User: Fold this.
Amino acid sequence: MENKENVKLYTQEGFDKLVKELDERKLDRNKILDDIATAKGFGDLSENSEYDEARNNQAINEARIEELTFLIEHAKVVDESTLDASEVNIGSKVKVYDLEEEEEVEYSIVGSNQADPMENRISDMSPIGKALLGSHAGDVVTVMAPGGQYQLEVREVSRS
Assistant:
């Protein structure tokens, strides 16, 4: 039985990015193996920084391949065409007004592995994302953040 804690929601775009990265990292395996073979040719492995670096790159790449495989196996792609465009969900763009800071901000709601706060792409699992899910324009939601709670007025909801 699928463990619901392991299931992560993705837009189709986010899922496709995971698959693309996995494919690229699998292709990188051969280059890394070539780098290891070349570095072995430089002599004594105990003092061979090129060999150590190549092996380190291999370990990092394999760990990421394992992580990506897990994420893909436990991904649930949200069919955005079936969602109510007026309700905040994954794939929504949301304009909100922060009642405390008195400023308007626009967020894109994405799956947790697609989040990029610098681009205002916030996870559905973040405090703001959780508070906004299911809301509509005109709603006031309370965000339960580590630093305390605050309120956002939903001004506009659209699809990305």
About this structure: The two ends are 33 Å apart (CA to CA). DSSP finds three helices and seven strands in the chain. The first helix runs from residue 12 to 40.
